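Chapter summary example.
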Amino acid sequence: MSVHQVLDKLGVEYRKIEHPPFLTCQDVVDYGIHREGLQCKNLFVRNKDKSKFYLVILPAAKRADLKVVQELLWETRLSFASEEDLAQKLGVCRGATSLLSAMNIKDSNVTVIVDGEVMRAESVAFHPNVNTETLVFAAGAIPKILNYSGAGWKEVEL
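The structure predicted for these 158 residues follows.
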């Protein structure tokens, strides 16, 4: 099922914005395209022995401090996962990773970490597993989406 079909099934109202391919949050600024909703960073990291992976979602304006994330998750060392890991664990390529990638998680060793600021936003904007469109929807739908995906997740303050 596509992301759009899942959101429709869950009754999540969204607005679709088509745009050129974006690989980073800076691309939004560079292209001069205003996106509605809170713009987020989506980081895919792993622990030292690749036994656990984390999809970390935080506001784009917030500094991503992996040492803080490590401490919150009781990990000794986190590093960015490879493009191969992205494809295998989330079914996406670099630039298309988002909270909506949780719908592709099949392994129990992948956990979604969502910053509390994202959860408290009025609306959020995420790629639907492709980087040529963005879906804007109420942040209140995040738990419903993550619970439907079956992925383990937790809300933290980063």
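To summarize the output: Helices lie at 3-10, 25-31, 66-73, 83-90, 116-120, 142-149.
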